[in-house]
Amino acid sequence: MYGKAFAPEYQGALTTLSVNSSLDDVLAAGTERLRAAEQAGEHGEAARSGLAVAEAHRRLGQVREADLAWKASYRAARDAGDVAAMAWALWSGGTLARQRGALPLAFRLLRLAADLGERGGDIVVRGYSLAGLAETGRIQGDYEAVGRLHEQLLAEARRRGEARHTVWALEGIAQMHRNSGDHDTAYALFEEAAHIAARAEDRRGHAWALRGLADIVSVRDGDTERALALLTEAEESCRAMNLSGALAYNHKMRANVCYRAGRYGQARRLYEQALGEFRAMAEPRGEALSRLGLTKSLARLGRDRAETAAELAELAGILERIGLRHAREMVTRAQSELGVGPADSPADSPAGARARTAR
User: pTM (2 decimals)?
Assistant: First the structure.
């Protein structure tokens, strides 16, 4: 039913690149082709090779370089009069904005990308852009608004036999079920995504599905060792492709699994590792979630209650500003779990003063 996964963002002379190509290889090939196209005055080819460069930088966590690259790709596409290539560049920019936590900008760029994709007759970039809008709404926690769009995109991907997009949609729907407490449905969807990704040789999608399965196995079954084994398998793919973001989220999930098992010292070290990785790639959502896990681990290891309360209050403010509703609810649960509600952080304490300064 599904063919081998492919990467439509690798275009022009770069279509020979695999969905599993190392990002370092993608960046090297894309940069070389981009320079040649620019020297030859080939605006269309520059736009399409520049897209691969932008995506490689983004997935490597190189935010500044990714920002410059997608904008240059858009300008080249505009000079070439290539509406579809303009849409792809905007899709890349919108995806980067979401990664940086600039959700309003992500929505704006992805809507423009979807519109241009439709005008340019490129159903793939339109689908990717709609998927980006759905994912942006999902990470905000607005499940009611984007649940139907996820289901619609899943049906379209199944109909066209697009393995990569089917896997993405299954994982997004699974995550919503997991966050809503329906662990059995989430597990079934992650499992289907893992099977499809494996058959389609989509290592990135397979790694994310394994991460989802590990989460469910840990939460629902309390099977710590199996969860860690799944994460180890996923990490192999992340490292092979140099997927910096996926690897950081893998480490954060490994920390989650250890925390649930009461291995607080191990969880602390893993959260610190993930936090450093997210900060290096300027990924505010992952950074905030890692800080939350680290704060909980430190509290379990005997950290001062006022320090814990101040840290959680600061995180609540950060997540509120980003607009991540589900993550904000996680902070509220942590405050309740640790018995350090907002009122427990004295306004005149050193910890409270530091929290106010940080905000």
Answer: 0.87
